[in-house]
Amino acid sequence: MGHEPLAPWIEPAVAFMVGCCLGSFYNVVIYRWPRGESIVSPPSRCPACGAFIRWYDNLPLISFVLLRGRCRQCRQAISWRYPAVELLTGLMTSGLFHVFGWSASFFVFFAFGTLLLLIAFIDLDTYLIPDVLSLGGLVLGLGTSLVSPHITWVDSVTGAVLGGGLFFAVAWGYEQWRKHEGLGGGDIKLLAMIGAFIGWKGVVFTVFVSSVVGAAVGLLVMARSRQGLVTRIPFGPFLSLGAMCYVFWGERLAKWYCESLGL
């Protein structure tokens, strides 16, 4: 007797749950890595009171809801970042499976998405992008292009050069104009990494989306802070958002745009 096929929702659900569990670990990396702490030991603990978190209080998403967003010991509020990272990782994993299945592209883009997620939230916390993530990702993106079905190594190298060169030129021009740094070196390396994974078309798409969204958010932040152009806003999260939008929808949007122009 043959085995009945799995229900169509089971594999995406498994991918979502695995992603949430990995997101829980990513929270550890995001919090500890910039502080120079080990990401392996000691076990997870409350940032407020230092109490160790038991396994049943560390279930992705579920524990946050059951504890009503507070530490069991000291009752201090738990940052919404923790469930947000878990949920985003779960959605990313399930979404990538939906688009690519269990293919080589899935694993390449999952590694890419993981790097972007870590970079985005570390940049939000510290205004710094660790070189080990951006430059390590650059090497990984160039390396996987040799065997990847979605990009050639020529497109990967072109994307990395365009991404790094484009933002270097923008950063240099802004510094000459304003006499202080606008874009950091971390953003330049990040866009080079993005180009290595998704090519020059992905770089153009990412810059467009990140600029539009970043400008909108920046105006809101500047209005609230009343600091004008000197307001510090990390750009890594917007670049990461733009790059993942390209992974999921970029080629279809580009095709629709070209068809609408009759190209």
Number of helical elements: 8
Major beta sheet summary: none
Q: Helix/strand-derived class?
A: mainly alpha
Radius of gyration: 20 Å
Explained architecture:
By secondary structure, the chain is an all-alpha fold. It folds into 2 domains: 1-102, no CATH class; 129-263, no CATH class. It is 67% helix and 0% strand. It contains 8 helices and no strands. The model has no long low-confidence stretch (mean pLDDT 86).
Brief write-up:
This protein is an all-alpha fold.
Entry keywords:
mainly alpha; globular; 2 domains; 263 residues
What's the arrangement of secondary structure elements?
Blueprint lengths: L9 H23 L29 H5 L14 H20 L3 H23 L4 H14 L8 H26 L6 H41 L10 H25 L3
